Amino acid sequence: MSDTTSASATTGAPELVLTKGTVYVIFGALLAAMFLSALDQSVVGTALPTIVGDLGAAQHEGWIITAYLLAIAVVMPIYGKLGDLRGRRQPFLVAIAVFVIGSTGSALSGTFGELVAWRSVQGLGAGGLVILSQAIIADIVSARDRGRFMGPMGAVFGIATVAGPLLGGWFTDGPGWRWCFWLNVPVGLIALGIAYAKLRLPSRRSTRPFDLGGAVLLTLATSGIVLLTSWRSITDARRYDWSNPALVALLVGTVVALAAFLVVETRVTDPLIPLRLFRSRTFSVSVSIALVLGMTMFAALSFLPTFLQMAKGYDATEAGLLMLPMTIGLMITALGSGWLISARGRYKIFPILGMGIATIGLVLLTQLSADMSMLEFGAMIFVLGFGLGLVLQTIVIAVQNSVSPDLVGVATSTNNFLREIGAAVGTSVFSTVFTANLTSQLADAERTLSAGAIPGNFGVDALTPQAVDRLPTALRDLVVNAYSDALAPAFWYLVPLGVVGFVIAFFMKEVALSTQAGLVARGGAVVK
């Protein structure tokens, strides 16, 4: 018997009437919130060199991305749990407000330290936008019909992935990088207004204590994982020096915090992440795919716009436009698979096909070269996007459908949390492999030139698209070829992970999709 009740349980009448109009209005606010969160993860990357140049902190630019990623990862499980315990309306409104405040502070920042701090505030809001948007859909739409809504959410993610670099480049070249943050404010305020007026979700009262110990330990473990995987970009050493006591202490502290978290979760009355969820084969397979997806696909995507700028000579705006084939592929399958899931009530085949096709996309990317045509490149990333669209939102539906309605928030946050951790680890490993390859390639290239043809400050850390354009012609050609020759083989390290995800997908147990929305199942709403 649940010790979490809604107000409707005490009055005997549901608090919410779910008409089609109500659902679509709420869905509009959720899409805006999802777009904001997804866009902000990609829009800053293009503007980053200009931002750190203006603020005089080029050597510490990694902190801008790390602070945001860390904040998102830390709060995801907390938002998920609070939504299950107390209801999702108030946390969702708080998340939007925090995100808007963080965006405003970032736009007004006068120093690098201020920007990192406000960027962290942004992340604290963004983590809630993603989790609560997906969980609220589960509250108001049945699992059987959810594909029609999750598909557009996946498409929004794909659009934001490409629109981010495009807008970042346009803002940087035009009105200025601060508009990367100002953009969020009006959209966020509109989403906040709609959510406040229309998002009338029932509140809940719980006698169960919040798992504060688990939250603290998971925060420490998550912080350690993100800082370890970002070590090369946030320290002056630019490498992993295991004789450094700070690095060793961080590793040991992370392992201890993670072990302590697992122990605590087995002993508390109401854990932050109930480990019993992993007994469900559908749940465990889905979140495993999410982890693999983060480690492979997001690591790959993070380097492709830079490849277009470094090896092909396009500016940031052009690079963003050339990523459109991936978005088109993702939108086709995200929307198509969503409608098919709703129509047929079956979903297992989509993660299998998606991981298989996306892995083929990774194999194709091992053939990247400086002289390849953009038609070839577009075909490669179209295949990658086509595979991603079949997986991204399908596994969210599978995860949510595998648990009881009162655990939807926790299940959703666990899925997204593992995907974010996978992205951090995968990007770090991929970056390390690529940098090692590039260093070797450049060393070989330098031997073919005279010492006078190589600038004194030349090196891997000094390579930016602008710096490459200023190099002497002979050296620039060598750098361009070295960059593509170093990047292409690095994708082979991701291919085995993609194969693992493909194999894991076959083990998913397909559970019949529920025909009741979460709130209806809990007695907090009726459908009309």
Share of β-strand residues: under 5%
Q: How many E strands?
A: 4
The biggest beta sheet is recorded as: 2 strands, antiparallel
User: What is the SS-derived class?
Assistant: mainly alpha
Tell me the radius of gyration. Answer: 23 Å
Structure characterization notes:
- This protein is mainly α.
- Helices cover 73% and strands 2% of the residues.
- The protein contains 22 helices and 4 strands.
- The protein has a two-stranded antiparallel ribbon with strand order 1-3. It has a two-stranded parallel sheet with strand order 2-4.
- α2 (20-55) runs antiparallel to α3 (62-86).
- The longest helix has 39 residues, at 408-446.
- The mean pLDDT is 83.
Briefly, what is this?
By secondary structure, the protein is mostly helical. Helix content is 73%, strand content 2%. The strands form two sheets. A two-stranded antiparallel sheet has the order 1-3. A two-stranded parallel sheet has the order 2-4.
Q: Which features characterize this protein?
A:
single chain; 528 residues; mainly alpha; two-stranded parallel sheet; 22 helices; globular
